[in-house]
Amino acid sequence: MIGVFDSGIGGLFVLSALRAAMPDADFLYYADTARLPFGVRSPDLIRRYAREAGARFAAWGVDSLQVACGTVSALALGEIGDAAGCPVAGVIRPVAREIAAAGRRRVLILSTEATAASRVFDEALAAESPGTVTLSLGCPLFVSLVENGFSSRNDPALLSFVGRTLAPGQTFFPDAVLLGCTHFRLLSPAVASLFPGVPLFDCGEAAARALADSPAGRKETGRASVRILVSDNPDRFRRAAERVGALPDGATVECVGELC
After folding, report:
1. Which of 28, 29, 151, 160 has CA atoms 20 to 30 A from the CA of 13?
2. Burial track 141-150 (b if 16+ CB lie within 10 A, e otherwise)
3. Selecting from 3.40.50.1860, 1.10.3720.10, 3.30.930.10, 1.10.390.10, what CATH number does the domain 93-204 have?
């Protein structure tokens, strides 16, 4: 069984890609909705949350863990993997490799505040392709916008807010935009409108491709089951997931933890 972890609905798109690539595998998706959003927390608190999530996955008996959260991938991948007691993969290296392979050398990185401050994406891109120039922008409200249903490219208020947030990136003149949080996929039309002709690279999609192509992913089999767990407010999570078409057909949302 493969575990998939995120703070909210963003990782459901990673889950969807993994299920398409590994149709026989069993998946357990856990969203720590009680602590959403992670990206505005301190590094120490993020690491604590990661250890607690990892302990849950260990109790659930997952065989491997895909962290779909960019913030935990950047700041606490080791902590969540150690606590889970199984192989763990994040969303940093796969997208850095894809951008380097595409020959992109001027990369605008959009992520949460905590991820941007860590500069982990910048370092991964430099390691894959020395000389790559990067600009990291922390986007503190993007996750909340997505979770609350503000993702339509036809919403003038959303476009105005995204434009103000990303204004420094427009004068950077990137040849690639890295979406460093899986929630940001839902804002990609608004982002793309600000950078016409510039390819967007989604960290979650790249991570799903990397796991599916790995030896462990290729041999993963099961009953094609999926279980979705959250740490708080399952009805709100379900509505948000359904609103963006990310809830797997027939899936229910269970609440686990002290708040349930």
Report:
1. 160
2. bbbebbbeeb
3. 3.40.50.1860
- Tell me what pLDDT residue 93 has: 97
Cα separation, 257 vs 236, whole angstroms: 16
Q: Give catalytic residues, as residue numbers.
A: 69, 181
CA distance 53 to 198: 36
For residue 215, give every residue at least 6 positions away whose Cβ sits within 8 Å of its Cβ, in sequence order, or none: none
Domain ranges for the chain: 2-90+206-255, 93-204
pLDDT block averages, 10 residues each, the chain of length 260: 96 95 94 95 97 98 97 98 97 98 98 97 98 97 91 80 95 97 95 96 96 72 89 96 92 87
pLDDT number for residue 260: 77
CA distance 133 to 223: 45
pLDDT at 217: 61
**What per-residue confidence (pLDDT) applies to 172?**
97
pLDDT of residue 224: 86
Q: What is the rounded CA–CA span in Å between residue 57 and residue 87?
A: 12
Orientation angle between helical segments 93-101 and 120-128, nearest 10 degrees: 40
Q: What is the pLDDT of residue 150?
A: 84
CA distance 241 to 122: 30
Predicted pLDDT of residue 218: 59
**Residue 52, by phi and psi: left (phi above 0), alpha (psi -120 to 50) or beta?**
alpha
Enter the tokens of residue 212. 């599916």
The length of the chain in residues reads 260
Q: What are phi and psi of 117, to 5 degrees?
A: -65, -30
Residues in a beta bridge with 223:
none
